Automatic annotation (TrEMBL):
Cell compartments where the protein resides: Cytoplasm
Keyword tRNA processing: yes
Encoding gene (name): trmFO
Protein name: Methylenetetrahydrofolate--tRNA-(uracil-5-)-methyltransferase TrmFO
GO biological process, one term: tRNA methylation
GO CC term, one of those recorded: cytosol
Keyword check for Nucleus: no
Ranges of residues in domain MnmG N-terminal: 24-397
Reaction(s) catalysed by this chain's protein: uridine(54) in tRNA + (6R)-5,10-methylene-5,6,7,8-tetrahydrofolate + NADPH + H(+) = 5-methyluridine(54) in tRNA + (6S)-5,6,7,8-tetrahydrofolate + NADP(+); uridine(54) in tRNA + (6R)-5,10-methylene-5,6,7,8-tetrahydrofolate + NADH + H(+) = 5-methyluridine(54) in tRNA + (6S)-5,6,7,8-tetrahydrofolate + NAD(+)
Length: 465
């Protein structure tokens, strides 16, 4: 079969002809990488377009596919957690993201955290060496014709974002997201910290986290300085999709609030939030800590630590001044300061169906955070669905809808059916799963039953793929 591979460049001489059916995937993040793998494993020739390093985003720093720009944690691996259940479902479906994450993981209690550099490099090498995947370093400025998956993520280039807005016919929604600081391990005063995971969970005998305990007085002083600290001004997206809109607290994504925004909600908001000492108090001799700042290993060499829950938009000198008030971090060396970056997403329910296929163009699919899926594994899961369905489309097979009793299916159902007034990026959680009837009242028992049903459903559904 001879098809025109139109990548929508300005010159007609730049159009490429291929001698076999081609799937174009725009975006080399977690969703695009997983989609490429799933389609390639089904015998499809994939052209994976990634604009980096020729054109970088405001948050990325490398040329690697699947670069993690926020946390290095992909979430829990436990079935009792929504992300952990999603991970187990994806493992059943030969997820490349799960496979590479397992190979590059670092200690993180019950969470799946990775050495982010090694993870991205390993993923890039794996996809580069697949015989059915061709990686093309080029920016795509308009939606291509022909079979395509758009998985450009929340940092979609302004030109492609305008093309998407014109195609969709809806105004883009948007919010600002935040990144936590990274600290050099040898600059931490270990005499003031202790090792431990909440409730003793984790792989290391002494605990997978470094913990910085705070007394009530230390905590109150920290919060007092934090709420009055100077922030980086957030501007509207000049020259991009929307202009003239000032960012404010209402534009932050609730699941990734800056630490200073949480502190403004009340004096003890952090002590009952990311700094809660629950599950750690008994590890400290004497008076239990009033609050605890956790540091998570960020690379396999154990030389860099991530400040858990410390996404921030403070100016860099203020980050240094205020975060050094934390016991053990008085001389902290910041490998990377926290930052805010713009995240864009589309109103997916009027854009796509549950198969992640565009409602008004059958050979176009979408995946990732661009359609309102939150979390690393959630993004990868949507790429998995889009990749499978795009391959089936090219093979003239019936497209599949994953059962809403599975976490993969529930995420796809949410982004294709949510009400406009309540649509926000959604991560894997038990609340979006189809309920069990009759209802189980006890929470943990209900979660266990939902997880067991989900895994069983996915095992049966796998036979249809």
């Amino acid at each position: 079969m001879r098809v025109l591979c139109n990548i929508c460049t300005n010159s007609i001489d730049d159009k490429i002809f291929c001698m076999q059916p081609v799937l174009r995937i725009v975006g080399g993040g977690l969703a695009g990488s997983e989609a490429a793998w799933q389609a390639a494993e089904r015998g499809i020739h994939v052209q994976l377009y990634e604009m980096r390093p020729a054109k970088q985003t405001e948050a990325h720093h490398t040329e690697f596919l699947g670069e993690l720009v926020c946390s290095n944690s992909l979430g829990s691996k436990l079935k009792s957690n929504g992300t952990g259940l999603l991970y187990q479902e994806m493992e059943l479906l030969n997820s490349i993201i799960c496979r590479v994450a397992d190979r590059t993981c670092v200690p993180a209690g019950a969470a799946l955290a990775v050495d982010r550099q090694l993870f991205a490099r390993e993923l890039t090498n794996t996809l580069s060496n697949h015989p059915n995947i061709e990686i093309i370093r080029q920016e795509i400025s308009v939606i291509p014709s022909g079979l395509t998956i758009i998985a450009t993520g929340p940092l979609t280039s302004s030109s492609l974002a305008k093309s998407l807005q014109a195609f969709h016919g809806e105004s883009n929604l948007f919010f600002f997201d935040a990144i936590a600081p990274l600290i050099a391990e040898d600059s931490i005063d270990h005499s003031l910290t202790f090792r431990g995971s909440r409730y003793g969970k984790g792989n290391s005998p002494n605990g997978d986290y470094l913990n910085c305990p705070m007394t009530r007085e230390q905590y109150y002083r920290f919060v007092e300085e934090l709420v009055k600290a100077k922030q980086i001004p957030l501007k509207s997206f000049e020259g991009e999709i929307q202009t003239g809109v000032d960012a404010g607290p209402g534009h932050f994504f609730e699941g990734c609030l800056p630490v200073e925004e949480i502190a403004r909600r009340g004096l003890n908001a952090l002590a009952f939030g990311p700094l809660r000492p629950v599950g750690l108090r008994k590890m400290v001799e004497g008076t239990p800590p009033y609050a605890v700042v956790q540091l998570r290993q960020d690379n396999l060499h154990n030389t860099i630590y991530n400040m858990v829950g410390f996404q921030t938009n403070l100016i860099f000198p203020e980050q240094q001044r205020i975060f050094r008030l934390i016991p053990g971090l008085e001389k902290a060396e910041f490998v990377h300061y926290g930052q805010m970056h713009r995240n864009t997403f589309l109103f997916a329910p009027t854009l796509i169906n549950q198969r992640l296929q565009a409602r008004n163009r059958k050979d176009l699919f979408f995946a990732g955070q661009l359609i309102g899926i939150e979390g690393y594994l959630g993004n990868a899961a949507s790429g998995l669905v889009a990749g499978i369905n795009a391959a089936r489309f090219l093979h003239n097979e019936q497209l599949v809808e994953f059962p809403t009793s599975t976490m993969v299916g529930a995420l796809c159902h949410y982004v294709s059916h949510a009400d406009r007034d309540f649509f926000q990026p959604m991560k894997a959680n038990f609340g979006i799963l189809a309920p069990i009837i009759p209802k189980i009242r006890e929470k943990q028992e209900r979660k266990a039953a939902l997880a067991e049903r989900s895994i069983n459903e996915m095992k049966m559904f796998k036979g249809l793929l």
